[in-house]
Structures are given as structure tokens and as C-alpha cells.
């Protein structure tokens, strides 16, 4: 399984995206990152 996390808004995107990646942590270990 895989997952995609995105964010559009005025808050600090780093914290929101890191939280999303943590929630997807066990879906697969092929790759993860922030661009």
C-alpha cells in the first residue's frame, strides 16, 4: 500500500506534512520524503 499527503494552507506546512508521514509510516518502506 502507499499513501500521499499534501497540504494547502497558511499554517507551517512542515509540521502538518511530518504528521501525515508519521501516520503513513507502516504502509511501506520503499520511500518517503518531503519535496
UniProtKB/TrEMBL annotation:
Keywords: Aminotransferase, Transferase. This is Glucosamine--fructose-6-phosphate aminotransferase. The lineage of its organism: Bacteria, Bacillati, Bacillota, Bacilli, Bacillales. Gene3D superfamilies: Glutamine Phosphoribosylpyrophosphate, subunit 1, domain 1. PROSITE patterns: GATASE_TYPE_2. InterPro entries: GATase_2_dom (IPR017932), Ntn_hydrolases_N (IPR029055). GO terms for molecular function: glutamine-fructose-6-phosphate transaminase (isomerizing) activity. Residues 2-35 form the Glutamine amidotransferase type-2 domain. Its EC number is 2.6.1.16. Signal peptide: none annotated. It is an enzyme of class 2 (transferase).
Amino acid at each position: 500500500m502507499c499513501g500521499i499527503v499534501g497540504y494547502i494552507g497558511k499554517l507551517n506546512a512542515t509540521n502538518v506534512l511530518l504528521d501525515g508521514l508519521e501516520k503513513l509510516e507502516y504502509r511501506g518502506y520503499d520511500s518517503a520524503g518531503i519535496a
